Amino acid sequence: MKFDVYSIDNAAEKSRATLAGVKQAYGFVPNLFGVFAESPAAVQAYAAIGKALQDAGLNAVEQQVVFLSVSTENECNYCVAAHSTIAQGVKMPDEVLAALRAGEELPDARLQALSAFTRAVINKRGWVAGEDLQAFVDVGFERRHVLDVLTIIAMKTLSNYTNHIAETPLDDAFSAQAWKA
């Protein structure tokens, strides 16, 4: 089954306003949103989670650590490229980005704990052990941050799985950060 990549002009009527907002925010409509536009529910849900993350307790770099940890764990080539580009835009240190993309230990202990906790949640399907949670808390994270991580995992699960099924083509804007699992 082939999935289409819709534009504002040919998307379902109920998807168009969301795509227009995305274009205003990013300067273009990423192909992922074009695929999501097939379902007004999917495109609106994804955009709403992204907007809600503006109120997260995790800062922009920490959020990108979670986005990239989920996307590398789920082997999503599209999202790793997209979030690597975004990570550069929020001034993630190059060595942190390189380590995330390579699946290596991060040079920053707090960010490493965040990435490890994220991966533990994914791999254990939420049944994280007490020591996983304690390691997360020991570097200064709180209950709020646990829920922020879960929110990002939900968002990335939606996009990672969509990209796997739809084989979403990588946008030119993200091609400099192309990644293969």
Structural class, please? mainly alpha
What would CATH call the homologous superfamily of the largest domain?
A: AhpD-like
Number of domains as seen in the coordinates? 2
| Count of helical stretches | 9
Shape, per Cα inertia axes: globular
CATH class call of the largest domain: Mainly Alpha
Strand content: under 5%
Radius of gyration: 16 Å
Helix content: 55-70%
Shape-level CATH architecture of the largest domain = Up-down Bundle
How far is the N terminus from the C terminus? 23 Å
**Biggest sheet architecture:** none
Instruction: Predict the CATH topology of the largest domain.
Output: AhpD-like
**What is the residue-mean pLDDT, rounded to a whole number?**
97
How many DSSP E strands?
0
Return residue spans where pLDDT drops below 50 for at least 5 consecutive residues.
none
Strand and helix order: HHHHHHHHH
Care to describe what's here?
- The chain has 181 residues and is mainly α.
- The protein folds into two domains: 13-54, no CATH class; 58-177, AhpD-like (Up-down Bundle).
- Helices cover 65% and strands 0% of the residues.
- It is built from nine helices and no strands.
- It has helices at residues 13-26, 31-36, 40-52, 60-73, 77-89, 94-102, 109-123, 130-138, 143-166.
- α3 (40-52) runs antiparallel to α9.
- The relative contact order is 0.17.
- The model has no long low-confidence stretch (mean pLDDT 97).
